[in-house]
Write a structure and sequence with these properties.
Layout (H helix, E strand, L loop, with lengths): L1 E3 L6 E3 L8 H14 L5 E5 L9 H17 L3 E5 L3 H11 L10 H20 L11
Parallel strand pairs: 3-4
Antiparallel strand pairs: 1-2
Helix pairs in contact: 1-2, 3-4
């Protein structure tokens, strides 16, 4: 799990939540959402490399549906392909390539940062090169 700063600019790894059973995971996520005043949840969607949704993506969609029902806030999906590979590379570059390192929270931060970056471009009137916004 990752969280952004209050302005929605920077994503940071926050926690690793084991999903041994869905209800325990949902309860833990709900606890964090409430304590951190989260207004939207972004869920990594594990698509196949060709972009199709397999059985794991369908399980993720069902989990996210339950999460949305319980939390009562928007839950959106973000393609998570290659996020773990990116996280491993970034952690290796930072000198954190110890054996047994968990990459899940770093991968979550990459997924969330991608979402934040995309949405900040949509909100920025200068991002589309509109000169009337000078």
């Amino acid at each position: 799990m990752a969280l952004s700063d209050p302005l929605g600019i920077l994503a940071s790894p926050f926690a690793i939540i084991n999903r041994d059973d869905d209800m325990t995971a949902v309860a833990r996520i709900a606890e964090i959402v409430r304590s951190e005043s989260v207004g939207r949840v972004i869920v990594g969607l594990p698509l196949n490399m060709d972009g199709t949704a397999g059985s794991q993506a369908e399980k993720t969609r069902a989990f996210a549906g339950e999460l949305a029902r319980i939390l009562g806030i928007p839950v959106e999906f973000r393609d998570e392909r290659l996020s773990t590979i990116s996280a491993k590379g970034l952690l290796r570059e930072a000198g954190k390539n110890r054996r047994g390192t968990r990459y899940d929270a770093a991968a979550a931060a990459i997924i969330l940062q991608s979402y934040l970056d995309e949405n900040s471009l949509r909100a920025d009137p200068m991002a589309d090169g509109d000169p009337s916004q000078d």
